[in-house]
User: Fold this.
Amino acid sequence: MRVVCMVPSWTETLLACGVNVVGRTRYCIHPADEVADIAIVGGTKDVQWDKVAALAPDLVIFDKEENTKPMADRCPYPYFATHVESVQDMPRALRLLAQQLNNYGLIELAARFQLLLNHPIAIQPAALPLLAHKDAAANSVLTDERPWLYLIWRKPYMSIGRHTFIYSVFAHLGLGHKLLAFESNYPELSLEDIAALNPILLCSTEPYPFAKQLTTTQQELQQPAVLIDGEPLCWYGIRCLRFLESRMESL
Assistant:
């Protein structure tokens, strides 16, 4: 089966399970050696159907959170859309993909996720995927009593809500109580809002590249900040699975 995948997390996962992915988004960057030979047909919010047509796909993969409804509505090929909002959604999403693609590898991944969900863990803050950066605060700052503000964007500053996949990962790791989690999924915050919260900043490497702006961010917000690898926290599928399994094995 020839598959065009418009979801970076799923592209990596499908390739790991031997699925024949013939088209991808420009953001599908893992694994680098394999995606280099796969045609780019757009981004997560746009698709060039003429490029898709040249690939003659049997199925197009979307996700309701990652992609837009008009993309699916205009798709002239059979498609399947997942809806992943939390770690708890993963076993079912993987089983549904397995049915669509007749792929046993995806069923095995679903079983591994279910095993994780059956055994919630509690890690120390230092076990988060923190990254070295000359301007980042020391890891020990995370043991402070101040709440954590997870930042995903700058100009405007944006954080995450309690109904997002990222928050569900922190909750599974026993650290959900440390996060400032909002009712809306991706709230915008003013400088005054952040000052009033007086948080420790968890600056994610994606979707905004905070590694390039960490010094500027700290100067602007006047709060201590650590740099955190966003990929294992928001790339659901095999990347998040491997991260969670590694933390469970280290306990």
